[in-house]
């Protein structure tokens, strides 16, 4: 398997013009989505938002490597991956406004976004083991961050996958930070990829800011997984913005991170330049892609604004068949609070 980092990136040998344009289109779509979602959050449209800007190449590359029937386990940070897989933007915006996920009838096999760190990893391994039992040949791609690798769930999930030959690609987006915790303080290992060795399968690092390299790597990894060899992919990328809209990164990192240029440089600018240099895209193409993304977003936002308001009681649904007494009490407290406050007047 390749080790695709740094100067070997954006290699012409992986350049299929049609696929390359499709990746560019999805990177523009998702970048506009992220910018718009942040702006909407700022005016109180949703309570909080975790931006992914800087990780578009990583997520679009992985999405384009997946087969239609491959199953995705996303996190709160993987919106670009979901959108590039075919989840409508409106579903994700509605979710962030308190609606159940995936309101539309899209047919992307995707699990709910995991917010509790790493909990999705053993579930994804279980889904892979289930595919083995039922003799289906789809694979699973599970997303998580560098911080998730310090959780027990990460180790349990990878251990089971190794022992039971689960068809799973463990897709770790190493964006250099877990909120305020830098990668060097997260683990003393040389890399995250190297951890796969302990579970008896392959780990690989890829330049996560190169959509072609990520696509190539994840395609190979999914093929191996289907053959019974799970793979851990460490996608080296960078979180350009805040952890979430509730975070202020200036409190813990300066503007000049100690990372190579390819890692911190904007992946969209870098990729656009690469494609323009080779005549794969031009002004007219870029303009059309931007206009289409804008129109798609406008429709998505309007669709969500036309929905009836979310029911606050939904926050207590879907986890337990019968609510525990403590949760019943919390729901009463919330209902009482809402009789005294207008949710639209609350400051987030
Ligand atoms: C089990 C659990 N512990 C703590 C948190 C609080 N928390 C939210 S995001 C986060 C950091 C995750 O970092 P990483 O895995 O690198 O993902 P990133 O946010 O960088 O995409 C933490 C500790 C949580 N959501 N779940
Ligand atoms: Mg991280």
Automatic annotation (TrEMBL):
PANTHER family xref list: 2-OXOISOVALERATE DEHYDROGENASE SUBUNIT ALPHA, MITOCHONDRIAL
GO biological process: branched-chain amino acid catabolic process; sulfur compound biosynthetic process
Phylogenetic placement of the source organism: Archaea, Methanobacteriati, Methanobacteriota, Stenosarchaea group, Halobacteria
Taxonomy, superkingdom: Archaea
Keywords per UniProt: Oxidoreductase, Pyruvate
Gene Ontology MF, one: oxidoreductase activity, acting on the aldehyde or oxo group of donors, disulfide as acceptor
CDD domains: TPP_E1_PDC_ADC_BCADC (cd02000)
Protein name per its UniProtKB record: Pyruvate dehydrogenase E1 component alpha subunit
Alphabetical list of Gene3D superfamilies matching this protein: 3.40.50.970
């Amino acid at each position: 398997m390749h080790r695709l980092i740094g100067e070997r990136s954006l290699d012409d040998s992986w350049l299929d013009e049609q696929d390359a344009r499709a990746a560019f289109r999805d990177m523009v779509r998702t970048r506009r989505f992220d910018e718009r979602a942040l702006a909407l959050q700022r005016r109180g449209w949703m309570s909080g938002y975790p931006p992914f800007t800087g990780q578009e190449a990583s997520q679009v590359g992985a999405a384009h490597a997946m087969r239609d029937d491959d199953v995705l386990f996303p996190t709160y940070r993987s919106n670009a991956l979901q959108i590039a897989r075919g989840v409508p933007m409106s579903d994700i915006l509605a979710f962030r406004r308190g609606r159940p996920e995936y309101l539309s009838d899209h047919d992307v096999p995707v699990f709910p976004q995991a917010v509790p760190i790493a909990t999705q990893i053993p579930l994804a391994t279980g889904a892979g083991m289930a595919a083995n039992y039922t003799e289906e040949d789809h694979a699973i791609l599970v997303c998580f961050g560098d911080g998730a690798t310090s959780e027990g769930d990460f180790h349990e999930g990878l251990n089971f996958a190794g022992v039971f030959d689960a068809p799973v690609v463990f897709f770790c987006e190493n964006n250099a930070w877990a909120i305020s915790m830098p990668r060097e303080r997260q683990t003393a290992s040389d890399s995250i990829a190297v951890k796969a060795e302990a579970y008896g399968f392959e780990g690989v690092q890829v330049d996560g800011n190169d959509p072609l390299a990520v696509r190539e790597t994840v395609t190979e990894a999914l093929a191996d997984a289907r053959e019974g060899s799970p793979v851990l992919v460490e996608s080296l990328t960078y979180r350009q913005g805040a952890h979430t809209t509730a975070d202020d990164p200036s409190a813990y990192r300066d503007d000049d991170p100690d990372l190579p240029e390819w890692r911190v440089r904007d992946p969209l600018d870098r990729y656009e330049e690469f494609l323009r240099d080779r005549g794969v895209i031009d002004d007219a193409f870029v303009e059309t892609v931007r206009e289409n993304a804008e129109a798609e977003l406008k429709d998505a936002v309007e669709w969500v604004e036309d929905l009836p308001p979310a029911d606050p009681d939904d926050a207590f649904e879907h986890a337990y068949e019968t609510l525990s007494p403590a949760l019943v009490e919390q729901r009463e407290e919330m209902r009482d609070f809402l009789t005294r406050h207008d949710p639209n007047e609350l400051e987030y």
